[in-house]
Design brief:
256 residues; alpha+beta; 5-stranded antiparallel sheet
Length: 256
């Protein structure tokens, strides 16, 4: 597992280790919905990846990650297993006063950090009371602002000019995470078409449906592509096995 993330030895549970583990995650474990799309199509009784063992087995075999609930749960399990003081935390995308997102907070020394498997800020975001924070990676800037209602994190999307506010709310446990993931079966922005996002050294790649977006320092490009080109990109650039991409394409565009 650690070897696949690029580690020759176990990282220490300090800030340097946290930064290294999270950066490796952001660049090697995509935020995506590929396995979920297949599960929804076949109305599987359990959505995939909420068990960290299943999540990591699938990632090692297929390159697939997951949406916020399973991927955050897996990242939390990894960090806790490495000795970090990690806590599952509920949040609200678009600041809607509801628990519609999961993240992980890690305490190192006297400071808490957000390491989010969906936002993929590439470096931990420090949450120091009274001190706004900003983390930038290749033109992708995440900002955190202390607020009486809880920390408010803002991050950009693939659509230029669209910034999502995310309110950190309260700690949660594994059971609540499982329940939230199951509720997403009915309502979620990730139930209908391909979403995939991953970082590299220079910036961010985002795939949404037939749109491929690249964000680097000083440049943002977006292009529409046919399905076959999107599928090739998912395999060649993000690293999914062809069999998974073909299965997803099959459930999205079944033969008549």
């Amino acid at each position: 597992m650690l070897e696949r993330l690029g580690f020759g030895e176990r990282p220490d549970p300090d800030l340097e280790g946290l930064t290294a583990v999270y950066r490796a995650w952001c660049r090697r474990v995509p935020f995506d919905n590929l396995r979920k799309l297949v599960a929804l199509h076949y109305d599987m009784p359990d959505l995939p990846g909420i068990d960290p063992a299943d999540f990591f087995a699938a990632w090692l075999l297929t390159g697939a990650g997951g949406t916020c609930w399973p991927s955050n749960n897996a990242l939390h399990a990894l960090l806790a297993g490495l000795g970090f003081d990690a806590e599952l935390h509920a949040a609200s995308m678009w600041d809607l006063d509801e628990d519609n997102h999961g993240t992980t907070l890690v305490t190192v020394g006297a400071t808490r950090y957000m390491v989010d498997s969906s936002v993929l800020s590439d470096a931990p975001v420090p949450l120091v009371e009274g001190q706004p924070a900003e983390v930038a990676h290749g033109g992708y800037v995440v900002r955190a602002t202390p607020d009486p209602g809880g920390w408010l994190v803002r991050f950009p999307t693939a659509q230029e000019g669209i910034v999502v506010p995310c309110r950190l709310r309260h700690p949660m446990d594994h059971t609540a995470t499982v329940d939230a993931y199951e509720r997403s079966r009915a309502v979620s922005p990730f139930n209908d078409d391909i979403t995939a996002r991953v970082n590299d050294r220079d910036g961010v790649w985002v795939v949404r449906g037939r749109t491929i977006t690249r964000v680097t320092a000083g440049e943002r490009t977006t292009r529409e592509a046919p399905d076959v080109e999107v599928d090739d990109f998912l395999v060649d650039e993000i690293g999914y096995i062809p069999q998974l991409v073909a299965e997803v394409r099959g459930v999205l565009s079944p033969d008549p």
